[in-house]
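Structure catalogue
Derive tokens from sequence
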Amino acid sequence: MAKVFVSELVLRDGQQSLIATRMRTDDMLPICAKLDAIGFWSLEAWGGATFDSCVRFLKEDPWERLAKLRKALPNSRIQMLLRGQNLLGYRHYSDDVVCAFVQKSADNGVDVFRIFDAMNDVRNLTTSIKAVKKVGKHAEGTISYTTSPAHDVNYFVRLAKELENLGCDTLAIKDMAGLLTPQTTTDLVAALRTAVNLPIHLHSHATSGLSAMCMLKGIEAGASMIDTCNSSFGEGASHASTESLVAALKGTEYDTGLDLSALQEITSYFREVRKKYWQFESDFTGVDTRVLVNQVPGGMISNLSNQLKEQGALDRMDEVLAEIPRVREDLGFPPLVTPTSQIVGTQAVLNVMTGGRYKSITNEVKNYLLGHYGKSPASVNDAIKQKAVGDGEAITCRPADLLAPEMVKLTSEAERFAKSEEDVLTYAMFPDIGKTYLQERNAGSLVPLALLDKASVQSAANPRFAPNEFKVTLHGETFHINLTGSGHAGEEKRPYYVSIDGIAEEVIVETLSEIEVSSNGTASTGNKKKAAGNTASGRPRPTHAGHVTTSMPGTIVAVKVKVGDKVKAGDGVLVIEAMKMENEIQAATSGIVVAIHANKGDAVTPDEALIEIQSE
């Protein structure tokens, strides 16, 4: 019998870390028979960001994905990642929703529930652990590993004992950012082996380049289970390669017993699949020792880079990475894992892009400071708390104790478009995008985010290309220019982000005319100048303090005022969703709302006036 058991992550965490969770179910199913035959302890295939990505981008039913994988993997344990009281959403849910979600996850095929809380607040884990045990499935209690003045070995040992007392079957060390070093792994695993009787499951991203060494030292110290990812989606922001660890342990007392040749057949398949998702590859998912400082987890970095790219701000990634540790300290050193990684990361982006730290504060940061995600590991910055929530007092009870049962209400709200309890739970996780998805599914109008064909993008059908790196000689001086990003095409004034001799710059280009090439190859010119004062969307440009704008591109999720309303400076007038977090936009001046230029669901950008307030 193998002395070390392997959980394979290619279907979930590997592709989440390297291609922003964009792999489609149709690309998973053909290889399932071979994955099923390997003999992994488990296959992680659900949970984490996969549920969100299925609904938001892929237009797939996440429950249907799970059921299909269950059928295709009859001999394997299917494992999921569950965020305790957060489930797979970004807020806490009532206990009846947690129990219903666990029940339906088990019904559709989940065998192993890895349960964690971003704050390591055991109160947020209790209901889900009990629910998993009630349905007769495997509950894996999880330590969200991080480093800070508040986190040491004794802290994690106390946490492990609490998880054991709750009845967990195994104990996972979740090193989501790759912060473990070989020595700290030895110390931590050894201490845990002494303190608890649970098998220890070691999970460590390879971002810092230390993961494989940590795995070996952890095994030597007593970990009997490890997470790895097939090399086709391994290393960097992902995990140590499965094949490499299997080869390293072969012939030792820790031999996994897995067939290296069979693993390499799987590698060949996924290498080809990965090529389809080239548009989601990122320069920020390789080995990067800066993670030992900024602590950005693997699953976050690929999504963060894609979100910045969509905003034409990829060149500001280094500024964001430098800001993240400062925000984390302000918030009392929470581990960076969903949802706190999004909370801290989005606030860091706002601090960088709005021209001032905490000039705009997300609703999630406000709720965090009020204790609605749990108890922070250390004290928060009082000045930031005062700025965000004033004299608001943080709650001291378990956050879910304040929530009334929700399933009846959610079922009623979703009655017109939900066809099953699973649909109701999809709506519960993501009310806006979930409702839209279910309505489109029912209407047969789902359109997934397109996969661009790299060959055709570069084919004769698209014969003209603009270079993204070049040299320009002007007045006898030569400049090396690298285009790193741009704003949205079609805008009257379009920002381009460039590096000039290594220095990042933003260049605003206003198109006055352009050459249009017709199908027969002839060219004509056209005037692209739009009506003065309006943006590409037709909304006016902001010209005075009464014009309300957003700090970053996003989608309007709520308009809180109507024409004729009186507002005071600082009143919330809009709520914008950007990078999966909600940000309340306040009025900068007092007066009467005289015009509203955007509605719920509209995509908006910072150069647009969304509401106009006229001073009295």
About this structure: Residues 514-532 have pLDDT under 50 and may be disordered. Residues 286 and 420 are 41 Å apart (CA to CA). The two ends are 80 Å apart (CA to CA). The chain has 21 helices and 22 strands.
